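Lesson 9: reading folded outputs for more than one chain in a single document. The general rule is that every protein is listed as its sequence immediately followed by its structure tokens, and records are never interleaved. Here is the first one.
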Amino acid sequence: MARVKWRRSAEWTAFLRQALGVPGGDGRLGVRVVAVNEQGRERLHYVDPADYRCSRLAAQLADEWVEYVAVTGLSASASRDYVRAVDLVCSAMDGACEEAASLSLESADLLPLLARWERTLPASYQEGSRQAGVAASCVRVLIVRREDHSERGLDESLARFARGRCLTPWGDSSERDEFSRADKRALVKAAWQEVQALEKRLADGWSLAAQGRHPDEGDWLHVPDLLWGLSRGVIEPRQIGDALPPLTAQWPDALREMVLRADGTVAKRRARRDVILRLLARLYPTNLDLHSFRVLLVDATGHASEEVTGFGAQDIEFLPKGVRLTLVKDRASRVRHRAFRDASEPRNADQGEVSASELLDGPRREVSAIVRRLLAVTEKVRERCPEVSDTLFVRPSLVYYDLRFGRWNSNMQGQRFTDWLHTAGVTVDGEAHIGRLRKSTKVEKAIVSGGRISVAADDHLEETFAGHYAQGTTLRILSGKVINTAQDHWFQQAVEGPTLISSDAVEITEDSERLQALGLDREQADGIVQGELDMGVSHCKNPWDSPFSPPGELCAVAPLRCLECRNAWLLPSHLPQLMLFAEHLETVRQRLDPKTFTRLWGQSYTNLRAAMDERTEEEKALARKHITAGEVSLDLPLAAHVEFDT
């Protein structure tokens, strides 16, 4: 269990802050502390070497951790990973060695213990978990960092071990699938509806506030007066809480309705706080409201959540037909300047409403329209927190009864993405994660670009697209359809052979009109009846349209490939030539190895045997008499008597 501790007392916080100024060193066994920012709030993480018997080892690792966080500016979650790793390895060393107090990074005895810890670490986690690999990697990073400073003691074998291959497997990570098209449409439609509801709520709230006055001059239980005071910052939420009667039954109906639950009851313990939150929600967007804008921006831009929530007013440049945004992706350490063009002329800023028909027929995906509306709804909040300039996603928050304005927290308890889905009335299949929406837009881009990865992977490496985004269900289905279509095409080409006229229908071959009924044009039917299209082993309905020769040129492979050609018509009169051709193929089959024969003549041989099986024994006996009498011959090109086994 990680030794990340949170204390609310001012004395404890003051102690930790004082510890930050104490000089480090192996001889100091005091608390090691770092301060990191998370959602604009300072978090204090610490490691106390005195909690472990191997206190010297814990102090050395903690010192490296403190410096590493300071130099790299690690996030709060990453810092916690290192604290957890130090706790895990030091706790394990305490239990594995009776002389744990003597262990340190200079000790050669640490190497076998550390190696055994890495090998056994995954047993403490569920199968496939990545946490064991993260912990082992963090410890190795701290050891390697110590080696980079030559003045600090470190066992050489331990240094080589730290730079070697990790003995703890990283586990498996399951890729999130993209939202289905139906789920995505529902998300975008609900987001637009929520934005419209938010804009109407704020407009009504500020209009109501304009009708009020200072509560001291008016009434502390009158909603317009309370909104007037909050909107101008002349009263504090605590004053409202103090002015409310102790019993909600004594409240005016307008205030009481704000805290009524679906079943008609009131949560009495938090009724005052809930009223204040409802009043603030009439003036400013809440943490939950901003999820709608994130959904719309991820869908419209195709960029990651951290990018679309991480640009400020100074990062926006409106163009005549769109907007240019400066997007920062911390994970990839990349800054991009992207222009997003509108599909049509952008409407006037005063014409901000999206009509019902647009919502039903297809929600707008113009980035400029979304950004303008986000600027409008957060304008009042940004005026109250000018120090937050790197994001438009700002909102008020109530810390106890203190009103604060700051950046958005997407993971705030009770106001996460899943809570927004519930509020918006949207149900999705699978995990409710905003990253799935990003993957949906990447899949669409891949489809529109015809599968060109260079286009779909325009904001990350192609390897990232192939390994992460190309595994979505939609692309797999499309890929399967393409493969099946190609296979069907070539299968049809392979099995589509000559047309066989049975002996029972021999009279058809003498009737031009009946041949036309089978799909031949008049000229082709007349040519077959008159014998003008006889190619040796079959008739050819169009020797100038051969699948084996360029269009318009005379077929160059007849009669060797006639039995593989869709233009061939096999008549009962061709049986003697077919029997001679069968003898020729049998000779070739004896001369070539099976694999080569199948590759060169397999389809012809198969079609020939199928045609021969359609003839009766009496017909075959009569055909042999014609062959013996010398009345029939088969003319084959010289190349047919030479086979190259290559």
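And here is the second record, again sequence then tokens.
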Amino acid sequence: MTDRLYLYDTTLRDGQQTQGVQFSTDDKLRITAMLDDLGVDHIEGGWPGANPTDSAFFETVPQTRATMTAFGMTKRAGRSAANDDVLAAVLNAGTKSVCIVGKTNAKQVREALGITLEENLENIRASIAHIVAQGREALFDAEHFFDGYAIDPGYARRCIATALDAGARWAVLCDTNGGTLPTRIGDVVRDLIAPTDGAEGLPGDRLGIHTHNDIGMAEAGALAAVDAGVRQVQGTLNGLGERCGNANLTSLIPTLLLKEPYASRYATGVTAEGLKRLTRMSRALDDILNRVPRPSAPYVGASAFAHKAGLHASAIAKNPGSYEHVDPSTVGNARIVPMSNQAGQSNLRARLTAMGLKVEKGDPALGRILETIKAREAEGYSYDTAQASFEMLARRELKLLPAFFEVKRYRVTVERRKNKYNRMITLSEAVVVVKIGDEKKLSVSESLDETGSDRGPVNALSKALAKDLGPYQDAIDDMRLVDFKVRITQGGTEAVTRVIIDSEDGNGRRWSTVGVSPNIVDASFEALLDAVQWKLIRDAGATATA
């Protein structure tokens, strides 16, 4: 017998409190579609009337399987719930569910709100009752609950009981400043649910948990609350949120579905198939925010299932579970065996096999590949993260790199001049000449984007290289550069530049390539070439002109 555990996502509202994050209405619609596809139960869309973006979102949001929720605050003292314009704006969004925040900390009620404790209870009661009378599901967001419970547990408990008695489906216990230890969260929840003074305890199946990550324990705090009896868990994708963020649903959801005792004890709305889309969804959110995905992110990070040491790779080949706590494919991720000068033949063969290149143990090519890697890393290359460039290196040694095209020459010029508005601008122009079969093609591109902003010489090179590859053009049309990292290695007069380029395509594939040269443009072009060739092997390999 499993209990139902409900998942409430607040990426669009609480996640937008993240420093530097500002969703557009289109962004919110894209994220809504992903969340609905994943299988969460509630999607909190924002605060109607608080800003134009949130108001526009609620006017355009489509029907969702998940319960769409609008967020607001309890009515203000001195007026009725029916005549409170802030509460009315939230209700006017027309969502099936409404979540309102209220104070549960007696000290804050007196000092921040400047009202009596009884007036605050009446604000909570009247607001919830008004929402329920409109035929909506009501949630009470108990702000600063755990701090309030430490100051006056009786009053904090009365706030929760008042909301539930007024008809709230959920009363959500918030660790608003993120400083409560998981053990304390568990103890407080158990106190709430346990009978007290002859009265019944509060119902756990109507309590939720909302934790922040200011001490790095938001997920642990949420799990402690679940262990103690709450049945709704709130959080955000990728842990977005103000200060240090919220409980990360990208970590919590797979833990609840894959780890015992949760996997056998609870059911959620997320299916096994939905879970397989988690990695892509996490990276898609970072793409919307123009952020680089965190490689070490649990479950979904690029390094979450990366095994560098030769001993580990050898053990994994015999027993995949020995160094992996779950099968990477269950969350849509993949095992990676990075290549470096610490690598042995076990690592190498494992990585080649993952690329679909089967090489027999003892093949002399293995030794050549390892020696090449070690020599190139001594020159400044790094293949730990540049997996696509490693594949190109291995294919060259194995004579398995198709001859798609040959670069005959390239040139980049940088000009600083005044534009038609008499403003100084920098403009880069790139010329690339490639040979495909017996035909030479010359392409020219500038670094200006559609807004007239300069994107630099690497951007111009990338556009020129991908402008006309003849029979391979369709394979690279959906390819784009998403990150560009530069590092100076070795130092002194012999310093060289290492460039790492991350690319992505329309299928959600993401790959990294590396280039090294004393000249940053030359290093960049080397990484660009590997990126294009890797993409062509995946999508146009059968048509190569080798």
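What the second record shows: The chain has three domains: 72-267, 310-397, 406-543.
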